[in-house]
Amino acid sequence: MLLGSIEAGGTKFVCAVGNEDYRVKNSVKFPTTTPEETLGKAIEYFKKFKIEALSIASFGPIDVQYTSKTYGFITNTPKPGWKNVDFVGLLKKELDVPIFFTTDVNGSAFGEYTVAQLFNEKIKSLVYLTIGTGVGGGAIIDGEILGTKGHPEMGHVYLKRHPADSGFEGICPFHKDCLEGLAAGPSIKARTGIAGEKVAQDDKVWDILSYYIAQAAIQQTLILRPDNIIFGGGVISERLLKKVRRDFEKLNNGYIDIDDLENYIRMPRVKNNGSATLGNFALAFNELHK
Ligand code: ZN
To answer: Does residue 78 sit in the same domain as residue 113?
Structure first.
């Protein structure tokens, strides 16, 4: 059996086919250009394989409500040309297979959840937060993706400001100083004038980011009480997560008992940014057997 996966990012698309063991058999990457060209390439790719179902983990915002007239669309994105694109409709017409549609971060969350089940880890719920060009979050609770009216928007919550960062306006086009506006990769350059990957490791900007990311972890802990909080995305490193755990402990102040913080706040188990592809295979499989 072959299953299809599309990880649709704002800068690149990763298309893959895999089997029911969720192993990648073939994959291809191409830049995200116009919807016509990009979706055309995806369709052409999957037509070469006899896939039985497909799952799409897409940049957003997207419409995931089955009853909505615009179900399967990319909706209010600032990305030029991609607003109100009928992503699922176009692929369904050409490929004619069951399609599951969710956010990129939900795909990653489901991949991490699936791996935890395969390795018999005692994980019933988890939150996945990605801190990259933007900030997004998804949660899996007892095998179900959280959100009925729409997908969660965990990247746009408001936070307490770091005392050394009070002069920074924030970069979210909607809210300025929400989590994304304060902790996404481009916020580093907005503060320092230097791209995140070139900023010195002892720069105080990392303590500022850590303070905000730790608040996100505290909020998710207080609201959902998940088994794990996983951080992915280009901004995240083990070095930064060390600071996040330190700040989490300070903010938590012993209120909630977390027995193994190293494991509670962690990086993905699936290597090489593969969580979303693996999650897609599992979601495509589920869609086929619904
Ligand atoms: Zn925002």
So the answer is: no
**115 lies in the same domain as 217:** yes
> How far is it, in rounded angstroms, from Cα 288 to Cα 277?
16
Q: What distance in angstroms lies between residue 97's CA and the mean position of ligand 1's atoms? A: 35
Q: What angle do CA 217, 8, 55 make, to 5 degrees?
A: 90
Quote the ligand 1 centre to 222 CA distance (angstroms).
Answer: 21
CA 250-254-255 angle, 5° bins: 110
C-alpha 162 – ligand 1 centre gap (Å): 17
pTM of the predicted model over 0.70: yes
User: What mean pLDDT is predicted for residues 63-89?
Assistant: 95
Exposed e or buried b per residue across 263-280, where buried means at least 16 C-beta atoms within 10 angstroms of its C-beta: ebbbebbbeebbbbbbbb
CB burial string 208-223: b at 16+ within 10 A, e below: bbbbbbbbbbbbbbee
What's the domain range around 164? 107-266
Ligand 1 centroid to 183 CA: how many Å?
Answer: 11
- Ligand 1 centre to CA of 77 (Å) is 13
pLDDT of 272 reads: 84
Ligand 1 centroid vs 60 CA: distance in angstroms?
13
Q: How many domains does the chain have?
A: 2
Q: How does pLDDT run across 222-273, given as a tens digit for each residue?
A: 999 999 999 999 999 999 999 999 999 999 999 999 999 999 999 999 988 8
CA of 155 to the centre of ligand 1 (A): 7
* CA 120 to ligand 1 centroid distance, Å: 36
